[in-house]
Specification:
The structure is a homodimer.
Chain A: H1 20-26, H2 33-45, H3 49-58, E1 63-64, H4 65-72, H5 76-88, E2 92-97, E3 100-105, H6 109-121
Antiparallel strand pairs in A: 1-3, 2-3
Helix pairs in contact in A: 4-5
The structure holds a DNA duplex (30 and 30 nucleotides).
Chain lengths: ~120, ~120
DNA sequence: CAATCCTCTGAACAGGTGTTCAGTGGTAAC
DNA sequence: GTTACCACTGAACACCTGTTCAGAGGATTG
């Protein structure tokens, strides 16, 4: 995990010979490790079919954990674990009401994201 | 939302009692396992910082494997393995030219996707 | 307060993921 | 043909992920 911003030696290449000009041109535009990490964690939250099912259920309406579990046919514990992941990426909101905790979609970014991806996959 | 006397349930619920009406309403809209799987695989391809770096490099210009390796500071073998993943989701194109194989971004869906996510993360 | 319900948590285990290493195939240069 | 280079592949290994199981915390009901 080292930063890529050092101008002195931008290539530290003991590697084989490559197209130096191309590499030097592209390298400063490469996503920083930090940003790449954050973005990867976000996509990672969406990279599980069960979590996607949960989101698609929440896209319909707010639901509590046990309803979610029934809707996607998972154990309640498993659902709880997965919701933790979705929460960590701010994909869902939750509010407590009595004994239940109701979850919902965090915002509409996710739906438009969904549509983008669905479009890509239909090709 | 009031509970109603449950009609014979289409939910195969040996589970605990939940809000049957909610579940029945939502369940048919839940993403099918097949679609959820495909979508998860797509997001999974984007869920690694190194792959995101590769894509950000390719967003600049077409590059061959060894240039990519130098640009993101990975081994060439590792890059090759990761490009395989990106190829499987049609995120990149490739064409052979002499001894080199040049990779590029497959289409612009990905960039707009990138921007969506970047917007979500800046909150 | 005792009992019950809903949700969350931690540990343990199976399965998946990404890297390195060694080796192969294909292309160009000599 | 031989050599060198570029890219790909498979195996092995460490690491991460998601499930289940058992149990704890919080809130409501009687």
């Amino acid at each position: 995990m080292q930063a890529v911003d050092a101008p002195s030696c931008d290539l530290s290449c003991d590697e084989s010979l490559v197209h130096l000009d191309n590499v030097r041109q592209v390298q400063p535009e490469v996503l920083s490790t930090e940003k790449a990490q954050r973005m990867a964690e976000f996509f990672s939250a969406l990279s599980d079919p069960h979590r996607l099912k949960l989101l698609s259920a929440l896209a319909q309406q707010e639901l509590c954990v046990c309803d979610l579990a029934a809707a996607v046919k998972m154990g309640e514990s498993a659902v709880s674990h997965q919701l933790r992941v979705l929460r960590s990426q701010r994909l869902v909101t939750y509010r407590r009401q009595g004994r239940n905790v109701y979850y919902g979609l965090a915002d509409d970014h996710i739906m438009s994201l969904y549509r983008e991806v669905a479009a890509h996959l239909d090709e």
